[in-house]
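User: Show me a protein chain along with its predicted structure.
Assistant: Here is one chain, sequence first, then C-alpha cells.
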Amino acid sequence: MARLVCVSNRVADPRKTEAGGLAVALSGALQANGGMWFGWSGKILDGEGPTPETVAVQQHQAGPVTLATVDLSQWDHDAYYLGYSNGVLWPVFHYRLDLADFEAGYIEGYRRVNQLFAQKLMPLLKEDDIVWVHDYHLIPLASELRALGCRNKIGFFLHIPLPPQQMVTAIPAHDWLARALFAYDLVGFQSKADLQHFNQYAAAESRAEDRDGDGRRWRAFGRTLRTQAFPIGIDVDEFDALATGHDATDMYRRMCDEYSRRQLLVGVDRLDYSKGLPQRLRAFRELLRRHPDNIRSATLIQIAAPSREDVNAYGDILRELESLAGSMNGDFGELDWMPVRYMHRTMARKRLPGLYRAARVALVTPLRDGMNLVAKEFIAAQDPEDPGVLVLSRFAGAAEQMHAQAVLVNPYDSTATADAIQFALQMPLAERRRRHQELMAQIREFDVHWWCKSFLDELAATDAEETGPDWLRL
C-alpha cells in the first residue's frame, strides 16, 4: 500500500493528540502505513540564516511515522509566514481586504520557502508515495515539486474559507496562485460554498474547461484538476475519551459548583478578527438589555487564546475585547455576579469537554470560518439527557452541515443574535434533546475518519491527464 506523506506549515507528533487539529485528523492514516510528516520545525534562525543548499532536514521517528522538519531564517519566517501567509492570504480569505498588506512585497519570501520545502522534500519521496499538502501557507508547493520532476499524486486541502472571485482577484498575482493549484491532482475545500467560489474563479479567470459539466473536474494549463468539498469532522470517540478523563470531569464539577445558580454560556476561540468576538460581547450586552431576566442569571465565559499578537490587528482586537468586557461588568455586574468572565489564555484541550458539558449555550459566532470544530466538539461533549444548545454563525463552514439543528445567527446583527441567545436559553428540554440527537448522528457519520478516507480515496482515483511540455516552475 502506498505511503502517505503529509506536508503542512507545522508538524506534530501524531501519537500526541492533546493539541487536536491535524494531529488528530491525520494520526490514523499516517500510522497505518508508516507515513511521513514534513514541515517547518518551528525554529527561527537569526538573520537570513543558511542558504537552501545548507539547510538540513531533521528526521526522527514518532512510532511508525517519520517527522521531517527544516528550520527557517528570521528573514524567511517574517516574509513567508507573518507577511504573505498571514498578512495577505489570511485576511483576504476571511473577507477582510481592509487588513491585507498588499504593498509589502512578501510574495518573494512565500515563493522562496515553498521552493525550499520542495527541494528538501523531493529527495525523501518514494515513487508511489501519495502527497497531501495542507493549507494556505503551501499553495505553490505542488508546482515547485512538479518543476523538480515529481510525478506523484499530490492533493491539497484548504482549511480556511475561499472567498468569491472578486475578492480573490484583489490579491496581486492571484493568477499565479490559481495556476499553482492546477499542479495538484485534487483540491479539497471545507464547504460547497468554497467549492462554488473556486469554480466561478476557474471558469472566469483561468478560462478552465469544466470537463464533466458538474464543477468537479477542470482542465487548464495542461492539467486536469479534481475539486470537491470535504467538510472536516472530529474524532468523536477520542473526544468522548477526553470527556471521561479526570481533567474534564473535574472541570465539569467545578463549573457546576461555581455556577449552580446561573445559566452558563461559553465561547472558546483563538484571538482573531475572524472570530467575531467583539460582536459576540455586544450581542450578549444586548441580551442583558432586551431580556433583563438574564441579569444575575446568565454568565458568559469567553476564552480567547493568544494568537499572532505581534500583528497590529490582533493588538487592536485584544484592547477592544478588554474594554468591552470591563464596561459590561461595570455596567451590569454585582458584588456576587459578573456577566462576563473573559480569559486571554489557552485552556488545555483535555479540560474543554468539562467546560462544554457544563454550558447551557455555546456561542460559535465567527464572522467567517472555514469550519470551526468547536461547534462539533460542544455537541459531542453534551449529556444527551440534558444537552446544551449551539448558537452558530451562518458564516461558519459548520453551518452548511448543522444549520437545521443549531440556532443560526448573523453575528453582525447584535439585536437578532441577542434574541436568538434568549431563544436558546429558554428552549424546552424535549427540543434540546431532539436537536442534539440529530446533530450527534451527523457528526458521527461525517467524522474526521470519514474526512480523511474520503479525501485519500478520491486522490487515489485521480488521473492528472497531463499533456504537453514538462510542468514549469511558476
